[in-house]
Amino acid sequence: MPERPHRFTPALALALLAGGCMSRPARADQQPAGQDFAQVERGRYLATIADCAACHTDGRSKDQFAGGRPIETPFGKVLAANITPDRETGIGNWSDSEFDAAVRLGRRPDGSRLYPAMPFPYYTRMSQADVRAIRAYLSTVPPVRHEIHADQLPFPFSIRASMWLWDSLYFDPGSFKPDSSKSAQWNRGAYLVRGPGHCAACHTPKTGLGGDRTQQPLQGYSLQGWFAPDISGDTAFGLGDWSVEDVVAYLKNGHNRLAAASGPMAEEVADSSSRMTDADLQAIAVFLKNVPGPSQVAASLSPQDRQMVAGAAIYRDLCAACHQQDGSGVAYLIPNLARSSSVASREPTSLLRVVIHGAQSVGTAGEPTAPAMPSFGWQLSDEQIAAVATFVRNSWGHAAPATTASVVHKARPLDSAGG
Amino acid sequence: MGRKLPPQDVVIVGLGWTGSILANELTDEGLTVVAIERGPWRDTASNYAPNYAQDELRYRIRHELFLRPSQTTFTFRNKSSETALPIRTWGAFMPPNGVGGGGVHWNAETWRFLPSDFVLRSHLTQRYGARFLPADMTIQDWGVTYDELEPHYDRFEYLCGTSGTAGNLRGQIQEGGNPFEGARSRPYPNPAQQQPFGATLFAKGARALGYKPFPQPSGNMSQAYRNPLGVRLGPCSYCGFCEWFGCANYSKASPQTTILPVLMRKKNFQARDNSEVTRINVDPTGKRATGVTFVDRNGTEWEQPADLVILAAYTIFNVQLLLLSKIGAPYDAQSNSGVIGRNFTHQTISDCTSFFDKSKFVFNPFIASGAIGMCIDEFNGDNFDHGPHGFVGGGYMGQVQTNGRPIETTPVPPEIPRWGARWKEAVRDNYQSSLKPGTGVHGSMYSYRDVYMDLDPTYRDRLGRPLARITMDFHDNELKQNRFLTDKFAEIFRAMGAQRVVKEYRKAPYDITQYQTTHLCGGAVMGTDPKSSALNRYLQSWDVPNLFVMGATAFPQNAGYNPTGTVAALAYWSAEAIRTRYLKNPGPLVHA
Amino acid sequence: MTIRRRDLLTGTAVALVGERLAKADVISGKLPWHPDAGSPPQLVRAGRWEFFTGEEVAAVEALVDRLIPPDPQTPGGKEAGCAVFIDRQLAGGYGHQEGLYNLPPFHDGVEQQGPQSEKGPADLYRAGLAALQHYCRAQSGNGHGAPSFAELATERQDEILGGLESKAITLEGVDGKKFFEQLLKDTMQGFFADPVYGGNRDMCSWRMIGFPGARYDYRDWIGRHNERYPYPPVSIGGRREWTPS
């Protein structure tokens, strides 16, 4: 099994972890959720959407949800908890309301606050019934004895109580409230994106303290050596150019006629969205395409600009053989640069990473090919990579500030969290 | 015997074309399959990326993607009376190595054999009489017919996205295709590739002489393609770095670009690379294979038990493994007894280089794919009356130039010195206005008593095992065939307006230093009679029923076409027999 | 493994042994991949000689410059870097036949059985160049002041090369024809190979003939018949136009 990269959750400017493991003395009012099969199955599906396994299953072990996976923060590592039903080292002792409080309110049974490494600010949008279903499902997975000693962060970051400030600024608790002026499909999509899907955790720009910039929903954010692109409905930077079918195909198969999922999104597709129903994926697509975008239109650099001239030469000699001279790629195989939001994104992080180190796109049952981009870091200097990046970001209708050699230079080392 | 691994249902020796085809078929049947490959894992972006794959020195001249002779090689002599010496560096052929095998660096010329090729002895005897054939020619019927293989040819062509123009659709001859081909059930999955100037000029010249030229069937995609397994390929960009090289933009059919993405996802499949199988193990009765022994990268020996063994290595290694494992009676040329090593063949290749007026012709020879070209088939197989000519066999011919790579392809007229100012000037003057197809005449080689394989008595590989020994020379039949074909070929270039056509006939003795394709065939052939074949018509060993041997090893003689299409069709044909008959009732499928 | 784009003075450019061997583990579940995968060639730069000694350098540079003489349009073998190419090849695996079957017994066979030499090209050059120098000195009288090959007039140099090629001239202790053929082959390869290997400086041979080098996409040209392809050549190491000016 390939080693998974360490997880990095962006909302962790204050992310610290209290000590100790999760065990507590048994209490009389703890009752696990009922074993109704339909509820368990619903819970399994919701756990896939919420992608609990992404953090709570350590890829190196085969034990589902047994925790221990390191999550990278700017201040050190946080270890994900053991959420199997083990009564001593897992959550087997918790009541349903305690589970709900953890997932939707960020509170542990002893009253201490969770750090938003656990994306409770998004999971709070889930309904109690959905969270109960997830709990019912988790109660059916094999209990694993695995004690997590999570305290790895130095003072003063070890004080959980300081989370009250962050919570007061950025935590808006409460289930999703449907918008009656919108369709049922839109509302389902909004629920999935804002709730269990927690897309904003990667795709929404953050403040200095790691909270969402709510005025720029889903407009892109840099993490783990990649730039999670703008997935609003914006036509220049987001998904405005994609049809609903394009979005669905991307989430379901990892590939559509224009783009391919690689890096952290490849994992997301493989573990989560490729296992969702078509109806849910369509709802997500409809919702995303209706999210307003930044609406900034800039002017492209002139083709005579010295970086553009050099970049054009590199592009013709090195890139066109796969991406075509007009940037259109090959549908479902080679990404369409002319219509790629990754290329045009606010920051060139993903583009540079892919050019320097290469990238493998995801293989799924629907699209097994998994083509990979080779690495060019050995061949091109910082200046040359800056030139070709500037070229593609200012061609075919794209517009972006020039990329500099020093930005390229900083992008060369592989992020230890990214892998 | 090495440490024992957990048993698998199937062990496959070699993960090239036939190994990948069989692995995919048998895993679909629910069996657990392990494929053991001598060479390394290979993949497009990791091993032949578009920023360094186009390196003529490294890949064409130093043969980097091929087997290193230091890992293993063969010995060679022309005649039984001579002493064989090791092939210390490759020349006449280049054995593949690594996952994907020859499928990584082939040029993707994808042909079908003629219906008459499969019943060659019967057909030629009937037409010309038995005495027309040389007494020591050992050609045989295959035991399978073109019609039986047709659906499997089709399957491979659709797996690969073969680009071509059909010539015979269900019996109806089609304009623009090969009028001599066996009937096909449906058109090619992709239209033919575009052709460069030299090829279209050749077609024009051929037509002027009354021939019917057609585009060479190509495993380089003429357009983006999604194959029946859901794997996608991109359009070929005519880069001119095809055969000898890996394809850097997913546009050449190979196991990597057609099967492996699906195969590798299956939970019941594993591959081992850098692991060399040294022996097929059989039980004390000698009639049942128990698995294989292999040596890993560290030199550690392992045993892989399995119920079914598929031998899917390159021709020579298949035969060598059978000999080393003592499966089947080794062929002895003196007494004409035994079958393992018998009916060993190669190809009869020649070329014409032509020079045109540089003020009127610009060919851009570097714009090409591996299977580009316009061909004629009038002189292949038994497509013409051989009676007046005193030989049998033939081949296709065409302007099939795949490259203008300068170390290999800077032709000058023969009287020009090989160095100095005149040489330099002649290179400059002729590069853009000359044509050098390479394997322009692609003739058959039929089988003979004194052309065979066995084990060398002296030389050993790095593991101490005897090297395979090749005894091979040209016979008059093939030399006559080649002279006739090369003369016809030259006429076409003259009809194109060449100022000068230089013929390069294939001459005896067979020379291990001159490249002549890697189409080595035979050695453990298929047939209807265990006395003259090693395998039955399903590629099942007559001696060991749970052993099947893939590849051109099965060809009783070689035809005038590239073998891969037929190799793959036989693999699918055999896989079907295993799936629908053998697995339900393991044992001999044919009772001789 | 990150291969940095740096110029290496040690120019063992071609890895005869092939790419890095993968671990012989079981492969299953998905197509293996890791960042920076691949084995690109190492760029050779002229500078310190790796194999040839001082006198040998002069001889080899003179030899390659006769095999491929300079002319007003295109450099000769020396300026094209053929001697540098050969130097780096001989210093690397190629020089000692790495990857070939080098086990005994060694017997001379017939020509069509191919080379059967225990000694590789490095040994052949060492012996051949020494024998050539000995020949030249012996030709012009004795001892000191007798010109080496490099000091002879070009007509005389050509005569000697022609004589080695035709076997009219033999060398002492070395097969002169074999040495000539090796030198010719290596010089031509150095002249036409990608410049990353030290020869074909500035892609001069490719410019001479109109070969576009390491380009990979001709889809917009396949249909343009009888029309010269106009773009300049590219090497794996790039071309000038890749860097903003």
Walkthrough of the structure:
The complex is a heterotrimer of chains A (419), B (592) and C (245). With 419 residues, chain A is mainly alpha-helical. Chain A is 35% helix and 5% strand. In chain A, α7 (184-194) packs across α11 and α15 crosses α16 (405-411). The longest helix of chain A has 18 residues, at 306-323. In chain A, β2 and β3 form a beta hairpin. Residues 1-6 and 10-32 of chain A have low confidence and may be disordered. The radius of gyration of chain A is 22 Å and the shape is globular. Chain B is α+β, with helices and mostly antiparallel strands. Chain B has one domain (3-582): FAD/NAD(P)-binding domain (3-Layer(bba) Sandwich), CATH 3.50.50.60. Helices cover 22% and strands 18% of the residues of chain B. In chain B, strands 1, 2, 3, 11, 12, 13, 14 and 25 form an 8-stranded mixed beta sheet that branches. In chain B, strands 8, 16, 17, 18, 19, 20 and 23 form a 7-stranded antiparallel beta sheet that branches. In chain B, α1 (17-28) packs parallel to α14, α7 packs across α14 and α8 (197-208) packs across α13 (476-495). The longest helix of chain B is centred in the C-terminal third of the chain and has 20 residues, at 476-495. The radius of gyration of chain B is 23 Å and the shape is globular. Chain C has helices spanning 54-67, 82-91, 121-139, 154-166, 176-192, 204-209, and one strand at 26-27. The model of chain C is unreliable at 1-24 (pLDDT under 50). Chain C has 245 residues and is mainly alpha-helical. Classes of the chains: A mainly alpha (419), B alpha+beta (592), C mainly alpha (245). The interface between A and B is medium-sized, with 24 and 25 residues. β11 (269-272) of chain B pairs antiparallel with β1 of chain C.
Describe the structure concisely for a colleague:
The complex is a heterotrimer of chains A (419), B (592) and C (245). Chain A is mainly alpha-helical. Chain A is 35% helix and 5% strand.
Structural class of chain A: mainly alpha
The number of helices of chain A is: 16
Uncertain segments of chain A are 1-6, 10-32
Quaternary state, please?
heterotrimer
Unreliable stretches of chain C (pLDDT < 50, length at least 5) are: 1-24
